[in-house]
Amino acid sequence: MKQLVILGAGESGVGTALLGQAKGFQVFVSDKGKIKEKYKEVLIYNKIEWEEEQHTEAKLLAADVVMKSPGIPDKVAIVKLLLNKGVPVISEIEFANQFTNATIVAITGSNGKTTTAMLTHHLLKQELDVGLAGNIGDSFAKQVLEHNYNNYVLEVSSFQLDGCFKFKPKIAIITNIVPDHLDRYDYEFENYIASKFRITQNQTKEDVLIYDADDEVIANYINNNAIQATVLPFSITKKIENGAYLDKDKIIITIDNNQIIMPTKNIALEGKHNIKNAMAASTVSHLLKIRKQTIRESLENFQGVEHRLENVLKINKVQYINDSKATNVNATYFALDSVSAPTVWIVGGVDKGNDYKELYPFINEKVKAIICLGVDNQKLIENFGNMVDVIVETQFMSEAVKIAYKIAEAGDNVLLSPACASFDLFENYEDRGRQFKEAVRSL
Q1: Is 139 annotated as a binding residue?
Q2: What protein family is recorded (predicted)?
Q3: Is 282 annotated as a binding residue?
Q4: Are residues 365 and 333 part of one domain?
């Protein structure tokens, strides 16, 4: 019986354990931290062996294959040990993929991947049997076990791709690439770029790579590396023969001389970056033969993503906006680009090697006050201290919101767009966003 060891008992770990057990593996789950009650109950109910707050080395080294949760870096001692012993260490995506014949649409990128994945799923589900997994919702492995959809839209992070070796999506999308998570890539941007491009490493010309042709990093990589897939770029600045581009207020998509035209004026999501997300999602839908009418209607009624430029409430004519999902500078760039009114900006958290220079023009133009919400705000104060009249520090969301309430005047915005990871003060960006919304609602 093959031994499957799982490092990390979160959503992907427990999903993989269930699928592995169903496929005849002897499964052992090991977590360095405490396992959440809801996951522990699943493991116990299914009689899957587990341990928490430790890794028993002998048991781990007996594995035929190890599935590592994306949150665990490759540099960790136990992972290094496994690799040195020649034990394959893979991601949940790689593991589950071998047990499905579904058509896979895989989406990666520094920003926009969640919105693009949710939008693509929303467009496809009107006419196809399709699951949404990866970085969102129920784990991919669990869905392969329980639903076995004919199609999947997967949001895939660079960490998940690092553990992919045979994974070959029918359609891959790279939304954009900007410096992010550099702490996991030896602070080398090249390593992170190569990681994202693993999404297309096994694709052939029967498969498709959709990407942002306006993104210099992506365009450079494609020009300098052999890509086997059929490429369908999208652009909002130039005309594209095969792919998608913006012509005034219409999206024009051409695939094999077959053209569709989508008006953008009624698209539910606002902002230039969302036109790009819509282009990518519509290109997939067109490839998978979704009717034009369905694509158009779905783009118009899509509700957007929680914690991504989410309007929370208007209080005394001040708009409160939750953009907690902005965990890097580029995401915050989109947020500041999309607001027009004077803005009180709540920023900060765990800095991942951020360069804030690209935000300077917005700070001068739109930001009237900055509230730093992190354990260590030194870098923010050094960057922005001289640019605004008011810059304050706090470690409590409720206090940050109260300060913002005092500063903001009628017609202003209060924007939570942290540009940083959330783990210093919050469980994750969702927890941070929910605390923001609760604090706003209790003003």
Answers
A1: no
A2: Belongs to the MurCDEF family.
A3: no
A4: yes
Domain assignment of residue 80, given as a range: 3-90
CA distance 336 to 359: 8
Last residue within a domain, chosen from 238, 272, 301? 301
Q: Are residues 126 and 176 in the same domain?
A: yes
Instruction: Please tell me whether residues 142 and 276 are part of one structural domain.
Output: yes
Q: Which residues contact 363 (CB under 8 A, 6 or more apart)?
A: 336, 370, 384, 387, 388
Q: What is the rounded CA–CA span in Å between residue 331 and residue 19?
A: 35
Tell me the CA end-to-end span of the chain in Å, nearest whole number. Answer: 59
**Residues 41, 169: one domain?**
no
Is residue 163 marked as binding? no
Determine if residue 109 is labeled as part of a ligand binding site.
yes
Give dist(CA 146, CA 93) in Å, integer. 16
| Strand order across the beta sheet in which 258-263 lies | 130-134, 151-155, 103-108, 171-174, 208-212, 230-235, 243-247, 250-255, 258-263
* Annotated binding-site residue? 115: yes
Q: Are the beta carbons of 345 and 335 closer than 8 angstroms? A: no
Other residues' Cβ atoms within 10 Å of the Cβ of residue 409: 11
Half-sphere exposure of 353 (CA within 13 A, CB side): 12
**Which pTM does this prediction carry?**
0.81
- Domain co-membership, 152 together with 272: yes
- 110-153: pLDDT as tens digits: 888 888 999 999 999 999 999 999 988 789 999 999 998 999 99
Which residue is associated with the tokens 């839908």? 285
Q: Which helix (H) or strand (E) holds 319?
A: strand 318-322
Nearest to 97 by CA among 15, 38, 220, 214: 15
Which letter does DSSP use for residue 421 in this model? B
Last residue of a domain, one of 247, 266, 301: 301
Q: Would you say 112 is a known binding-site residue?
A: yes
Structural domains of the chain, count: 3
Per residue in 165-198, pLDDT (tens digit) is 999 999 999 999 988 777 788 788 888 999 999 9
